[in-house]
């Protein structure tokens, strides 16, 4: 691969699911050792691995590898090297392990307080204990939004909750024993009534940032991630007379 900052973008193209590994900087033999969980749909017949060289302006494609999911279903697992191709030639290999998880039972819930009066009532999913099975996080009435992501780059899934009732945004950091650390609370402004949140890298670095729709103050709040378990001061953007109820992110102007 040469000296590069490689990462892998993983796609189930038919059901439009995707995940990304971390970026390994200045490495010609990267090791990601990350686990991702996909909810495979009947229309999914292929999984695609896009190996790229991270660049702050525009990522460079190193190569693409594919695996037919029929092979995984037939054997119950996949444990092989996948060849990466670009322009008809091999540019390397990545080692991929996949398995099928059909268990649909759940353990007893573990409860984490989100604060008096927060009143959450949404859900998020993720592989919180690294067992290849999708877990569920449920917020009770009063918290209006919850998302799962890796905010501090430690390989463990974290949770972020927008609390409509208490005008704040709360992060629970995942631990290596598959529990969650004490919450850190980020105010979203008096009377802001945060109603929805989304996660993305808004500054084109490797850290996942958050944006929150403040229904009560007619604003979008962006909270940039420092990548070490702390966050920068929030930046507020007015939505005029509109009271935002939901929020999403994407590269709408193709600006990369």
TrEMBL record:
Entry-linked InterPro entries: C2_dom (IPR000008), C2_domain_sf (IPR035892), Integrin_alpha_N (IPR028994)
PROSITE patterns: C2
Pfam families, per the entry: C2
Domain C2: from-to ranges: 1-82
Protein name: C2 domain-containing protein
Organism, scientific name: Rotaria socialis
